[in-house]
Amino acid sequence: xxxxxxxxxxxxxxxxxxxxxxxxxxxxxxxxxxxxxxxxxxxxxxxxxxxxxxxxxxxxxxxxxxxxxxxxxxxxxxxxxxxxxxxxxxxxxxxxxxxxxxxxxxxxxxxxxxxxxxxxxxxxxxxxxxxxxxxxxxxxxxxxxxxxxxxxxxxxxxxxxxxxxxxxxxxxxxxxxxxxxxxxxxxxxxxxxxxxxxxxxxxxxxxxxxxxxxxxxxxxxxxxxxxxxxxxxxxxxxxxxxxxxxxxxxxxxxxxxxxxxxxxxxxxxxxxxxxxxxxxxxxxxxxxxxxxxxxxxxxxxxxxxxxxxxxxxxxxxxxxxxxxxxxxxxxxxxxxxxxxxxxxxxxxxxxxxxxxxxxxxxxxxxxxxxxxxxxxxxxxxxxxxxxxxxxxx
Length: 393
Hints:
By secondary structure, the chain is mainly alpha-helical.
């Protein structure tokens, strides 16, 4: 991505004096740069279009495509279209398959009837052999031989028809299964496909590189005492599209990573009342450690790594909060809720340490803040503890 923006900066060389003297030139230049960025976003989308993504992502892609074509278009729902395509394909082929199977059954039934008729004819012919002369016997034997050959050929045809029907049915079933597999979320190791990891890093890099390019052109226009008030609007629009696509990628990545690991809620629910917190969290913390190493290898941009990691942290906090609220409604032992509060605190320490190690000097206070579900759980735990002390005494 740095090479792409380096080329954009190189393309602007020589325009400074022109834009400074004629600021209105800044508007078409902005259109060229924005068009290039939208083209990059579209190419990134094409690498991940087979994945299941959020609505805002699809809306952003539709907006980008409409702008690239120069006119507005209604946003499309990729997942619904994919499901509709599979349903239509399955319906059409099932109808054809039913017709084919019906014809095969009719053919087989006709062949069976013909076979019985041939057998009956053969029996009748045998019963009347004594009535015929030697010449007639010879003619009958020839006829019976032809009848046997005909029956053998028809039986072979019947078997071939049945086999063809079975093969056709298996083909339709396999094709439908393949379409469904490609049209829906196919879980990959630890939930992060390589295409999605590359898209996350690329779009995040775009967000980091583009301000310098936009500021460079804006300074030239300002030095020339400004231009049309429309200047800058397209750059803002692309920024919104870029962030919406990044959010869609991020939600898809976090959902896959969270779904591929152990459930904190189930771990808390299945824990014994006297269980030690280390034993309860051991599989969860092991997965977090493994996923952190995988993300560091898969995501070339550190901010994308932190985004997925914080998303996983938020997901685990939501699970712990759900367990805590369910436990409150059931009015069970307070020790289980204490275990949940201790679990999110221990997990929070692990996530903060990983984020610090990755960002080093670039770490910000908001990077280390606990996600909203954990903050709510801590608030509930604090109020519950106060209420509990009154009940005890």
